[in-house]
Amino acid sequence: MIRAVISGMGGYLPEKVLTNFDLEKMVETTDAWIRERTGIESRHIAGSGETTGDLALKAATEALESAGITGADVDMIVFATTTPDETFPATATKLQAAIGAKGFAFDIQAACSGFMYALSVANHFITAGTVKNALVIGAETLSRIVDWSDRNTCVLFGDGAGAVLLTAEEAQGTIADSGVLNVILHSDGNVRDMLKSSGGVSATKTVGTIMMEGREVFRHAVTNLADVASEVLNTAGLTNADIDYLVPHQANIRIIEGTAKKLNLPMDRVIVTLPEHGNTSSASIPLALYAGVKSGKLKKGDLLLLESMGAGLTWAGGLIRL
Ligand code: ACO
Asked: In this predicted structure, what is the pLDDT of residue 189?
């Protein structure tokens, strides 16, 4: 059978860093509150005129270089973002032109689960034999849709981009294979108002800002992430003990610690970028993968459990062997 194997990775964070101490001067908050309740210490903020597409291009260029291919070898781009450069066309097509890719390119939107949704779509195209090289992007400039006067939300988010190149490879069809082993997606539109933008193209002709019932989202995250982690392991016929590393969406350190505890994984087997990145939504998992590999923690052959939860509500889990 064919598997989608990670053949390259890239990441990019804008130069400007906004610390909790900077936020103390903007809203009624403290560094201690933010660190204790979320685990976040600082986040990166895109410069004026620096767009989601610009961040993605830097991450994608690095992913192609690390794979030793050029844009012309890319057959498909799936670009997960909630903060596209324009309402249309898709930011993916801007990236396609910038790297000189052929094939086809499109955006998808599943908020903080965007990367997992993009990974699933690309995996299906590759395993169906339609595509050889797929570039999967998660990139955001959330700073553009944050209400900087709302302390409940403005302390949580940051900007960034992560890119993963998936390449079709012949495999045995066992869980010892390298590549994407499974991805399971969920959503529940009944609770969509829990985390949403206050505006939108068709509803208000504006972009809106992030609104969240934090405590409720937290409660759903803890339950849904534990459930989807069990689901991906059961589907693959594996147990907690088989996982080498958890690579979670980076929203809140207490949610990440809760999931690790349920999986019986010590925190040194969890990739955590939250203190320096904040929540970068669809960019958070590819950036965590990238950081894990760069630091030398994640190695060829490691079995990774990925999981995410975001607006929609959407949530997802998946297993990848490096
Ligand atoms: N500084 C100081 N105090 C604050 C701040 C702040 N930045 N923000 C809120 N508070 C106050 C509240 O007003 C409240 O005060 P009150 O008791 O007088 O009303 C108090 O702190 C406690 O507020 P809670 O909301 O109960 O705080 P909680 O411990 O739940 O933490 C948080 C809030 C961090 C938002 C948490 O609920 C959370 O992380 N939720 C999940 C976020 C998440 O996972 N999002 C998913 C993806 S995001 C996406 O898809 C785009």
From this structure: 97
